[in-house]
Amino acid sequence: MLSRSAPGLRRAAGPLGLLAVLAAVAFPLAPVEQPEAVYSWTAAEGDAAIPLLPYQPVELTAETSCSAAREAAPGQVLLSTVPQRPDVAGEPLRGLRLTADGGALRVESAGVDLGTAELPGGDCTLSVVSDPARTSVLVDGAPALVRDGDVRPDVAGAFSEVRSGVALRLTTDTRFETRISPLKAAIGVLGGLALLGMLVVLHRIDRTRRVRLLPRHWWRPRPVDGAVAAVLGVWWAIGAITVDDGYIAGIVRSTGSNGFVGNAYRWLNAPEAPFSWFYDLYHLWSLVSSSTPWMRLPSTALGLLCWWLLSRLTLPRLGRFATRRWVSWIAALAFAAWWIPFGLGLRPEPWVAVGALAVYLAVERALATARLLPLAVGLVLAGATTALTPGGLLAFTPFLAAGRSLLAQLRARRDLRPLPLLAVLAAAAASAVFLMVPDQSLAGMLEAVRVRTAVGGGQPWFEETDRYRRLLDWTFQGSIGRRAAVLGTLLAAVGVLWSLGRTATGIATGPARRLVVGLLLSMATLALAPTKWTQHFGDLAGYGAAVLVLGAAVGSAPLRARPRAFVAGLAATTVVTAIVLAAYNLWPYQGAWFTPTFSTIAPRILDVPLATIALVAGAALVVPLLARWTWQRAGGEPESPLPRRLPAPAPVLAVVLAGVLALQVLTVVRVAVTHRDSYTPASDTISTLRGRPCGLQERLSVETDPAAGLLPVADGPPGTTVSVETVPVDVGGRLVPGVAVAGRSTTPWLTLTPEQRTQALPVVVTTSGTLQADDGLFLEFGDGTRVLERRRIAPELPARDDVRELAPAAATTVRLAVDAPDTARAVATLPRSPRLTPMTELLPPVRSALLDWPVAFLFPCLSPEPLPVGTAALPEWRVGPPMDNTETHITYQPEYGGPFVAPRLLITERRMPTYLAGDPLRDAVQLYRWVPTQPLARPEPVVTWHTVTGWQQDGHPRVPGIDPVG
Fold first, then answer.
1. Which residues lie closer than 8 Å to 197 by C-beta, 6 or more apart?
2. Which domains does the chain have, with CATH numbers?
């Protein structure tokens, strides 16, 4: 039965849908506002820093007078856009170079020798004009040298060996730094209103038959809800960070200063579009506070929402079995088994998990009510979920799992013709476009995709097996929690598909089958994601928890009457349990600090791995049962029921999941309690609630002057000492007395400080150079009468590192002893006691610093260095991860599109040792001071805003080593 206005409304649905589709098509093509930043410089200003990002300008004009070129000595550089003496640790760029050559001027750009331009007699002007199409050398406006193609130079600044007669003018590449124009905003509003109007029309014209959406008393809290909320709350306060929390935090917190959501660590800071709308929400959230607990609240709220969708909507749809009292508690266990290893933090998996489950429910609602509105809403949600991350494409799998039923239902609709119906469905799916490019042009988005593809970092679909190989690794990628959730769910999925229709379990066959098929299709869809990390399994948290509940329902059925099914299920459970228990309880980065020894190995009892015990115990049950079944089958006997005392597969898996969950949470609780004097997420949460929200920085101190902590020579040293000649050792730009690691010698005995005697501070020796295997360098501790202990400084150290040792009990003195070949290959400072300054004093809150991505999440009080109007800032400080973490190289290497390649060429990096409260031996982070290699001017750009079309493309930014020159 239709409402009275249905005929008119039916006619409106198609046009509104078509209007929404047209708006979605026009939205990326609409104009955007783009800044134009122009830098001008003359040689009289001195050398200048203009570190571009992308590295080449859109256009550049360099000018010099012929008289300046003639007066310059042969080989003298009139202009270079990269420093002539960069820091040796920086990655080189290829700039523009104008070199005097007698009566001529040699020109090089982007590593290409353009030739030599002869200078005519008299006064004249020589210009170099470069853009993406060509680079020309002009003498008084007349072409002297012309090179077609893109040979624009890289630019880190302007450098000259003369102080007059040279000028530079360039326009930075700001193609990514766009903002929405009034016309684009109007198209978006029009499309949104048309979509909303279409949904209202669908609501009015749908059939009026009512089907209850929510179960009775859905709003009443239950004890299980309190338990889930408590677990999520505890995990919010103490849970470990994910591997990408710092990466996303850096991107999110840079959005305000950069003007758009760009990848601030690689890919030329290209936009994250079309998968970035949740970054905008996190950016707005971070404006209130950037503290770790505050930034983790959204994922915790999403966990509560996912649980509500699971417990109030999904389980009742799956059948009558959901009314049993134990089901809600099994659902809570299944949900926690997924959410604890995957759901906390800034990554998009919690968003995708909620979106995918919501789409499944919308599809089921459409099938249950034969209405079009839930289907359209499901398409809108699927599009929004896809706009989160490439893995969000799995949100469309419920439509595939229910494809046949949906098509039959749509064909049965006689109130909408095929074309209006198609327009309605297309409009719902196309609504994602408004989230994908809200402030980017189509050209900018396509260029960002091109840069990411050219630089690489992803894997093709046929390497999807790497994800499962990592799941079985003995690293945090294959941690015990991740294995338990994924492998347990796969086991449940197989069991449900095998048992549906064969066992009376109270399960609704259609919804259950669609749920399991949707899960398996979603796992296949993950192959389209460009990276293959196991963290992406978190996209399936909502699906996975529901499938685990179905598996428990199937496993609780009287399978003993079906011996083959029982034995197969028990065998599969045994194998999965053994593989899960063979994993380690590991977390990435800071989550690995203070890890108990039992978490660094597979769980065991009396030094016997639990995996082995589980496998042997399972085999002891399965093999006799299999032999019994085989014997009966060979004799033609009917299969007899199995004994009731045999453990069923479902309870066994539930015990494993509960044990793994307890191991994960209680281990972190133990760390939080035993190391509350140091940095843990728990101590961070407590400090933030007490008004100290600076995270790890609150518990770090910095050794600003290593020479200030040198130990005094002891009075009356034990034994005979050999006088040793000291040599200067560079420690973070400070020269500290040290010894060459050559020959045989010992330093005088040095007196330990009271803090070192109580082990509050370590004895520190800094090495420089390369220690070889045959280099004997030792720390000897004494008590005034004898040597108490001798410790070797191992040759596996990096090229430069601090050796930190706690003095043994009763030690009062220390010295260095050398026993090495005569040729010195390394030097070591004399032992010292670090004089420390709190990091919050050295870098007060709101101070800007370059925050490397592995640690950016842990320093909420420091502002990330900006990347404004086609350039990169020249930071004074850099906060990096521990020295053994080399993953930050992408930010400083041009072949990765590192945003801070050009600034790195302009400075010398000085390391300043840091010390963690409660664990002074730990290399927690590295702090570096960036000191310019020479005085540099900082020209200010002239910035104007222009409106550009959505398809405007001014060449391509060139990634050195990847994009060809010319």
1. 12, 16
2. 40-171 (2.60.120.610), 705-834 (2.60.120.940)
